Amino acid sequence: MKEEAPSVLECYISAHEGFYGTIKNSTRDFVEEAEDFIRFIDTKMPNSVYTFRGDDSKEHRTAVHHFLSRQFGKLVETKSFSDQQQKTMAITVRLREKGKPRKRTADDSKGEEVYTAFTLRKENQETLEAISYMAAVLGVLPSDFTYAGIKDKRAVTYQSMVVKKISPQRLREKACEFERRGVVLSSVRSVSEPLHLGRLQGNHFDLVVRDLRPHQGHDTLMELDSLVQEAVEKVKVKGFVNYYGPQRFGTGQSVKSDRVGLALLKVEMVAAVRLFFTPEEGDDPQSVAKRHFLQTGEKFLLTLEALSLMPMSKARERMMLRALHRYGTGPEGCTRAWLSLPHGTRVFYPHAYSSRVWNEAAAHRLATLGHRARQGDLVWKQRGEEGIEAGETSLPQVIHVVAAAEEEEEVYSLGQVVLPMLGNSVKYPENPVGGWYQERLARDGLQSCRFRVTPLKLNLPRCYRPLLAIPHNLTYRLEQDTTRPGDTPSLTLNFDLDSSCYATVCLREVMKCDP
């Protein structure tokens, strides 16, 4: 039996009528164009031109110009022009001419580490799974890959990565092998350093919601358009509750990642391993291997059998099983097994637990204190000047406690309110929400936890997350879907989100239901 989704997303910000719809293979139209564009970038032919499909929305064209400038500004220049044949406007992109590079000398490369950047396209697999597979093929560690965040398993996603110790030529040689496993690389090139998390500016999303059905009434396309316009405009202005999406915890898993994280925070290494190896229902190869381990794992010599059953693509599970076979399945062996994983993988699980508690805290804060900044709330006085998400430094002097007079005068808005992520030396709200945090941690036996797991070299530092998130460059288009039976309406949404914000949560606010 599967667990219910952690931290049920209970609260909305805007008061508007919602609608139902389905996201199913919705990115295909955009994926084809994105792949064409990336191939164009890869050609590196100066003055070559690429033209996007026609787009009548000036607002969306502006958003595309800004996105291309932000992501490829040094490589391309863009302009809009009138397409007379299609009677619409389109965006054309031209590759800039490069200046003559300085000739490198032997001294330039002496002692330099080799770094290769690339764009990863994946579908129906986790980021960590794709990285583990590439690492195994290339003969490097998963920790040799640097990237800025984990993408949704279910979607077709693109993200920048850098791998250490591998040349561009070697990476290209393995590209065909990767493609057979649904991992496609593009924009392969040499760089001088790894990818730093702080450089993540956010993500762009293109979504199509099909089979639109209003929650009530509004049978005609015109009426539905009015409903959708109201929803989009309100979310543009007010934003949405900045919940962590279900993919943070593992969608479709019997045991969610936050439960593994709780066991690690309590230094219950054996329990954490058993939770990690909890199988799903069914007889897929991974579940068969996990089930075999749990049934025979006390006899650690038999972990080799579980390892032989585990698919090669499941690099995390295989690393754990190898360590358990070598060191045993007791507390020390399980600790060694966790240490066999890269640091970024180990810390993911305590972060998942922290994310679950944050979601619950956000729902409690809005349900009990409403939609205004209240006395004792924490506010971010200089939002945007530094990162707020886990893993980045938070300066204590820019976290301010709202005073009674400031609440009365409405000095701060709800959009400036932040809630703490669990971590050492974190400041909690000085109102009932702060007390709620303490009660919640005590319920899980963490009332004295310092959020350092010394045996695993893990540390959750102080950081804060905004209660609300605002989508940028949000545009939409509603049209009859003539490719599907009944000509049901479909909704195309294009928007940008700051790092660690979830498109599914934004869409939930627009639709007033889980997409």
TrEMBL record:
The cross-references to InterPro entries, in alphabetical order and at most eight, read: PsdUridine_synth_cat_dom_sf, PsdUridine_synth_TruD, PsdUridine_synth_TruD_insert, R3H_PUS7L, TruD_catalytic
Catalyzed reactions: a uridine in mRNA = a pseudouridine in mRNA
Q: Which GO terms describe its biological process?
A: mRNA processing; pseudouridine synthesis
Any GO CC annotation of this UniProt entry: nucleus
Does the record carry Transmembrane helix as a key word? no
The record's annotation in Pfam families points to: R3H_PUS7L, TruD
UniProt-listed NCBIfam families = tRNA_TruD_broad
Q: Which organism is it from?
A: Hucho hucho (huchen)
Q: What does this protein do?
A: Pseudouridine synthase that catalyzes pseudouridylation of mRNAs.
Q: Under what name is this protein listed?
A: Pseudouridylate synthase PUS7L
